[in-house]
Design goal:
The structure holds two protein chains of two kinds. Chain A is of the alpha/beta class. Chain A has three domains: about 10-45, no CATH class; about 55-150 and about 285-345, Periplasmic binding protein-like II (D-Maltodextrin-Binding Protein, domain 2, 3-Layer(aba) Sandwich); about 155-280 and about 355-375, Periplasmic binding protein-like II (D-Maltodextrin-Binding Protein, domain 2). Helix content of chain A is about 45%, strand content about 15%. Chain B contains twelve helices and no strands. The chains are: A alpha/beta, B mainly alpha. At the A-B interface, helix 4, strand 7 and helix 17 of A face helix 3 and helix 11 of B.
């Protein structure tokens, strides 16, 4: 019986089916379920998303980053497990909060920075990850947490326009803040994350001392005052990785803070951009599961699959964010030249400050409010 | 007999009148229900949540925070400044344009109206990014000006207040033009002709006859534009380059920062209350103004 329209299945017809089948065998029950769900799908043609057991919905940041994830990790991992994966983009942990608190069901897992996951976990909106399923025995220590299974390591660097500075761009944060030696417009992030650190490093504070100093009010003000000192030269406050990549592509600013991988992709697309890992601040990103996600168990297995080195090795071919699984560096999975361009390569990592999630868990709100205050002055 | 009959008739008419009023009131019930469900309850809920602190108890922390950081007051000032300037620009561009359109024959006015409506139907995001492409440092406009050697250095059109105003005025213009056009079309042209026949110069006829008659449409348009501007998010975020932070942007970042509806609700409440206060004052001023011109 081919329904002419979605309302052909009326209640009475389905009820009759149920009554009939209840008297017969369980096998027919399955068919009724199918008919019922078909009828439901027909009636709820709009708005209702078809929901299948063997499908995962994941959201990420879009742009070159998600393209790399999709080709390198999401799709092949799903294929290996014999499931389908539906991808979408989202606006960050606040979207997860909105969904969980309003009882919505839009995605099963998300790709997110470690810091956002940590604060989301503290707010009770995330599921605790099960590390008896997700194997992190070969991962770089510190790149997984209760609410976030780290997948890649990225660096916040100072990138410059090679048309403006050639090869001699800002190779240290002191250079970035030196408007005499490096005249030109700058861009910084509109959020506080990894920005205050640059100010203190520019002031000559040793890496080991940065977070100690930032933990005092004077220290935080010292960093903010340093940014204030170059505020007239900051033409744009960027809000996303896609934006700072575009700023460099368009030559809108001469230098900017930003994520190394985005700059490499922009460079591949012909942007005149370069950066030095000596300005790097390392941070990591991974997967989390919203509280009450219907597909939680499958999600956990899917994360376990995505942690395998071969996917991470494929991912770095698309965007230069280093793998968290050290096995990805072995057996020639990643070419030597490519490995050397990654933030977590030992030669690059040794120059860099590791972003402190603990500091952000404690001081993020105070720092963020002060940062906005500085921006609006 | 006749008076008694009339009296009876009057009674019956009154009864019918009451009944009809009751019926009409009954017809408004669905609307009243909608208003209370969609407006009164959510706004009450917004007020309530703004007094809920991060730990879930009643507190004023969401309001005291706004006093602690100067950022909030600056953001509100920016929000009202940008909204006011956008409204002003829309009025300065929109009024002459609409006047011109209202004087055209219907056919030509219709073609002009399509010119107003097509951008109105285009996605806001597309139009905003189009402005970015046109106005940025190495954008079309700057390149053109540089090529013709009109300027030596690129002009900063975007990532600042001027870029925000250009984008917002463009997006808001139809909201002013549409009510104003309807109003101007309904103004009887004979009134202006009468003024002219009594010896008024064209400009005198315009200012003493046409303009006062167009004020209701203008005010409606200005009000719509101003109020819509207050809640703008995308355009200032893209064209302001982080230098123009409006209330809606702070509301969004507060949800992310505090993980509590309260921190965002309080901003919404303040915005709502200040807006109502401004509109109240404005309505007073306008009515006084109208009385004085009549007198």
């Amino acid at each position: 019986m081919e329904p002419k329209n979605s309302f052909d299945f009326d209640g009475s017809c389905v009820n009759a089916d149920i009554v009939e089948v209840l008297n017969v065998k369980g096998e027919k029950m399955k068919k009724v379920k199918q008919i019922l769900s078909l009828a439901l799908m027909g009636v709820l043609a709009f708005g209702a998303s078809a929901y299948a057991e063997d499908s995962i919905r994941i959201v990420s940041w879009g742009g070159a980053y998600q393209k790399g994830q999709s080709i390198g990790i999401f799709q092949p991992a799903a294929k290996a497990m014999g499931i389908t994966v539906k991808e979408d983009t989202y606006g960050g942990i606040s979207d997860v909060k909105l969904m969980v608190k309003s009882g919505g069901d839009k995605f099963d897992m998300f790709s997110s920075g470690a810091g956002s996951c940590a604060s989301g976990g503290a707010e009770g909106i995330l599921e605790k990850l099960d590390y008896s399923i997700i194997d992190v025995s070969n991962h770089i220590p510190g790149t997984w947490s209760d609410y976030c299974a780290g997948a890649d390591i990225f660096s916040v660097v100072a990138a410059w326009n090679t048309d403006t500075y050639g090869d001699n761009g800002p190779r240290s944060w002191a250079d970035f803040y030196d408007v005499e030696k490096f005249p030109g417009t700058r861009a910084m992030r509109s959020k506080v994350d990894a920005q205050l650190e640059t100010a203190l490093l520019a002031d000559g504070v040793p890496m080991s001392e940065v977070y100690n100093i930032l933990s005092t009010e004077e220290g935080m003000d010292r960093a903010l005052d340093k940014i204030r000192s170059i505020k007239d030269h900051i033409a744009v406050w960027w809000t996303s990785g896609a934006m700072h990549a575009q700023l460099m592509k368009d030559g809108e600013v001469d230098m900017t803070t930003g994520w190394n991988g985005r700059f490499d992709v922009a460079k591949r697309d012909g942007a005149k951009v370069a950066y030095d890992y000596k300005t790097g601040i390392m941070d990591w990103e991974g997967y989390g599961i919203p509280k009450g996600a219907k597909n939680k168990d499958l999600g956990m297995k899917y994360i376990a699959e995505m942690m395998k080195p071969e996917y991470m090795a494929e991912f770095v071919k698309h965007i230069t964010y280093g793998p968290t699984n050290t096995k990805a560096y072995e057996g020639g999975l990643i070419s030597d030249a490519l490995a050397r361009s990654l933030p977590s390569h030992p030669d690059n990592a040794k120059h860099q400050l590791l972003l402190s999630q603990d500091w952000y868990a404690k001081y993020r709100t105070i720092a963020a409010e002060k940062y906005t205050e500085m921006m609006t002055e | 007999m006749a008076t008694v009959g009339a009296h009876l008739n009057e009674e019956a008419l009154k009864r019918l009148d009451r009944q009809e009023r009751f019926n009409l009131f009954g017809l408004t019930l669905p609307y009243l229900g909608l208003v209370s469900i969609l407006i009164i309850i959510p706004i009450g809920w917004l007020f309530y949540m703004s007094f809920i602190g991060r730990d879930g108890t009643l507190s004023f922390e969401n309001y005291t925070r706004m006093l602690d950081s100067k950022a909030y007051i600056r953001i509100f000032i920016t929000t009202f400044k940008i909204s006011f300037l956008t409204t002003l620009i829309c009025a300065l561009i929109g009024y002459p344009l609409t006047y011109f359109m209202s004087q055209l024959p219907k056919k030509w006015a219709g073609i002009c109206m399509i010119g107003v409506l097509i951008p109105f139907w285009t996605s806001l995001l597309v139009r905003t990014y189009a402005w970015l492409v046109l106005l940025q440092k190495k954008g079309l406009l700057n390149n053109l000006l540089l090529d013709f050697q009109i300027i030596a250095e690129p002009i900063k059109f975007v990532h600042n207040t001027s870029g925000t105003l250009i984008g917002m005025a463009h997006i808001m213009l139809p909201f002013l033009i549409l009510p104003l056009y309807a109003n101007m079309r309904s103004i009887d042209k004979d009134c202006v002709r009468a003024a002219a026949s009594l010896g008024a110069t064209p400009s005198r006829a315009f200012w003493t006859v046409f303009f006062p008659l167009s004020i209701p449409g203008l005010l409606a348009g200005l009000l719509i534009v101003f109020v819509l501007c207050l809640g703008f998010y995308v355009t200032p975020a893209v064209l302001g380059g982080g230098r123009v932070i409006m209330a809606a942007m702070k509301i969004s970042s507060n949800i992310e920062l505090y993980f509590s509806w309260g921190a965002a609700s309080a901003l919404g409440v303040v915005l709502l209350v200040v807006t109502m206060a401004i509109l109240f004052i404005a309505s007073r001023l306008v009515s006084i103004d109208q009385i004085s011109t009549r007198g």
